[in-house]
Design a protein that fits this description.
Number of domains: 2
Strand order of the largest sheet: 1-2
Order of helices and strands: HHHHHHHHHHHHHEHE
Radius of gyration: 21 Å
Strand content: under 5%
Largest sheet: 2 strands, antiparallel
Oligomer: single chain
């Protein structure tokens, strides 16, 4: 069960304080001063437009000659309209061939050093889908899964090491791709739908993959970005860069009153004021609607 949203509680406290300052009658509850005011979001959010543009471009078959190049986000290369290659699929390809992926390591390092996991928050099509699914209400209460002591966050590492690295090395096959719900939704379903020969070959593996897709669709309706938080191997690669990337966040501890409004806005369901550049942060900048949290660039403290 969830209580009144933190943002509403925050705004109510601010309104009480303003009413007292103006000499109007309010409730007898004590007001707390110096509370930052959370700005309201526009009807069409800027990040949503960027996510939509990224989804359209990544699957528009424009510049399809770039399909040899990995995308900075998780987007299945087997999708009939995909423009670029899946970075995790490319990584497994080289590992399966017992070849060190020098170019990919450099690619991941450059993206991570510049923006950390910001591509997850602004450009990933599968992340965008999860954001949309969580907006579905269906009269049900949403579930809050807090990341405490990195227990939930650590779930991504067995997937990355076991399936992406060891699995690909041992079998020479892209094991993660065979089970990836993003691939099932973006490539598996469309290919089976449009190609009779592929539809005739669909068997147990396809059924298992569709079951995984269904599980994640239901989970994404109830929980904020479950795939990004607990499974995604690309997020696992980018996350160590969050604290050293060029784009970071800074919390003004004097202004922050720990009201929880930032967590209510966070699509990863974390508390930014506890660790603004945590490994779970996708740098979507939703929390910066509170003036206590600012974006900083480079190594400067301000």
């Amino acid at each position: 069960m969830t209580s009144k949203p933190a943002t509403d509680r925050h705004k109510s406290a601010v309104n009480r304080e303003r009413a007292i300052n103006n000499g109007r009658a309010v409730s007898n509850k004590p007001a707390v001063s110096n509370r930052p005011v959370v700005s309201s979001r526009p009807a069409v959010h800027k990040r949503t437009l960027v996510q939509l543009a990224s989804l359209v471009f990544a699957n528009s078959y424009v510049l399809s000659l770039l399909k040899f190049c990995p995308a900075p986000v998780l987007n299945c290369h087997a999708c009939p309209l995909a423009v670029m290659a899946c970075p995790i699929g490319s990584l497994q390809h080289f590992i399966g061939q017992r070849r060190f992926p020098f170019a990919l390591v450099g690619f991941f390092t450059v993206i991570g050093a510049l923006v950390g996991r910001m591509t997850c928050g602004w450009a990933c099509p599968f992340g965008f889908l999860q954001d949309l699914l969580f907006k579905i209400r269906l009269g049900r209460k949403k579930l809050q899964v807090k990341i405490r002591h990195h227990a939930w966050e650590a779930a991504r590492y067995p997937v990355f090491v076991g399936l992406v690295l060891i699995g690909a090395f041992a079998t020479g096959e892209p094991l993660f791709c065979k089970l990836c719900p993003a691939g099932g939704l973006e490539a598996g379903l469309p290919l089976v739908a449009i190609d009779p020969s592929i539809r005739a070959m669909a068997g147990t593996l396809f059924i298992v993959k569709m079951a995984i897709v269904l599980v994640f669709i239901v989970a994404a309706i109830l929980i904020k970005r479950p795939f990004c938080r607990f499974i995604c191997p690309l997020g696992t690669i980018y996350s160590p860069f969050n604290k050293v990337s060029y784009v970071r966040l800074k919390v003004d501890n004097e202004l922050c009153n720990k009201c929880g409004a930032c967590r209510a806005a966070c699509p990863m369901d974390i508390d930014p004021y506890l660790d603004a550049d945590s490994k779970g942060c996708i740098k979507c900048l939703e929390c910066t609607s509170c003036p206590a949290i600012k974006v900083k660039y480079g190594t400067s403290a301000e």
